[in-house]
Write a structure and sequence with these properties.
Structural class: alpha+beta
Length: 88
Amino acid sequence: MAKDKKLQGSAGETSVLVGNLGRRVLVFNDNEVVALLWAAVKREGGQSSFAKRHGVERGRLNRTLGGKLPVGRAVAKALGLRRVYTAE
């Protein structure tokens, strides 16, 4: 049976390999996702442009950027992310 290996890379990158199973992932906390969102909004030319392009309600986007709402599924998808749970 293959031995389990745990690898730690840069930027919080962690992978647990079991034989041929497992994958390398980047793990972001909520604040880091909001920072990624700010950068994406800036690249798009503003909140309205980002919201229109990705089908996100602009008011909800604004409240997410302001820390009043958590990052929702539509925003995560627009960033190419998905929510997962990890053990601490």
